[in-house]
Every structure is written in C-alpha cells, then in structure tokens.
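Write out the 3D structure for:
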Amino acid sequence: MTKLENGFYTALGTPLDKDGNLVSESLKKHINQQIDAGASGLLLMGSMGIEAYLKNSTYADCVKVAVDTVSGRLPLFVGAMDTSFARVKEKFDLIDDADIDGIVLTVPYYAPVNDEQAINWFLTLADMAQKPIYLYDLAVVVKYKINMGVIDAVIKHPNIKGIKTADWELIKEIERKYPDSDFECLCSRLDSFDYMNMMGIGKNLDGMFACTPKNGKKMADCNRNGDFVGARKYLDNILLLRDTLIQYRLMTAFTYCMNLLGCDGNFHQDYWLDVTDEGKEKLRETMKLIGEI
C-alpha cells in the first residue's frame, strides 16, 4: 500500500438489529457518506464499531459488506481485537482473503499485560497475519500504554506498518528516531487535532467523524489549505456534539445521531439504555446547529 494521505480517518459505527445482526444497507450508506465527504480512510469495527461485542457471524458479515462497498476507493482497516492468539486467529481466517489494507490490534484485553507480553503479542500475530498489522494504543480500555520500548522492538518487523494513538509525544518520538521509516502514525487525540495538524501530524482518526462527516470534510479541507483557525471552528463543532453525546448516554446517543443521518439500526452495545426524550431533542438541536442535518 502507498503512504497514507493526511486527512480524516473515520472509525465507523456498526449498525445492528435487535438480535445483533448487521443491518447491511445501513452500513453501506454509512460508508458511502464517509467516502462522499472525502474521508482519507476507514476503520471498520474499532472502538466506535463495538468490535468486542459482536457475534462472530456479524463480524464476518461486516467485513464482506464493507469490502464490497468500499471497492478499493480508499484504505480500509479492520479491527481484530481479542484476548488470545487463538481467538484473533479465527478473525484472521475471515480477514486474510479480504481486500483490506490492514488489521488493527490492541494488546489482549481483560487481563493486564506487561511490555514483554505486548511485544510477544504483536510480533507473533504479525507473523500469523497475511495483512499488515497496525498497533492500537488504547490504554483507557486495555489498561496498558504502548511505549517507545515496544515500538523499538516491533517497528522493523516487515508486517507491522503503523500505530493509532492519542499520544502525540510518542508520534513525534517515532518520527525523530525513525525518520526514514514507512511506519505510519495515525493520531486519535480528538481534542487536539488542530494543534496536531499545526505540528505536521495530519492523519486524524476518530469515531466522532462517523456522525460528523460534513464537519470532518470542512476541517480536513481547512487543514490542507493551512487554515488552522478555520479548522478549529469545525473541530469545535465536533467537540460540541461529542460532549452532548457524553451527557446523554454516549453510545445510544451515537445511535440516535446516526439514525438522524439516515443510517438505521443500533450502533450501541445491547445493554445500553435508550436516550431520553430530552436527550433526543438536544442531540437533534446540536446536529442542526453544527450543520450535519
């Protein structure tokens, strides 16, 4: 794969019916919305895509529908987070023949890991996979922070191609230490995307772009033109909606916003309570205010 372009990379949501099955037409619409908005790439079944909560049959359906819909129009990455080599290998078996650009992996969750185990995890899975591996630095969930020692141990593996992290200092350290490497760094520190772009960290990946494709496009266009003040305006819109989602049951609020965009189905874990009527009114008001509907 050629070097990734600067721009916004969307962690997609996963639309489900009441039984946890994929709503295929909704996922297709969601993907096409993002492509039409000019997304530089897509992450299928990351955190916003509730990968850890999906049935195995739904996981397979998501990959097939996404690959068919994207049809090579932009880079597509797929999450395969799990708790053991054996469980991840089952997902590799579904992914390895698919036309995707990379597999995104955290360290195993549930039980904490140390540096030695993290290095063994990524190197072993990189040997197993037929697709490039991208590290996912998600310390708030997996209770382990990827550090420079881990990067040093894995960066020369020919099948480890990058990292998604909110740690901009780690990104700058990687760039300083390995200036000639093709190792890609995607930044997921949403609150600081304006500063990240001013510092030359231009690959911005986040799940909030899923429900803000218009603002994501405008922000990315401003950044490409060096208009960082203008970019901040659209980032502020995204952050306003993010904060509203948090106020009114984050994941079911995300479902409501996706439904407002015409993407049917539940985008949340099945045990979350629905958004209140007050929350729906506020979310609709905010989506209108920022120009998404």
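Residues 228-247 form the longest helix (20 residues).
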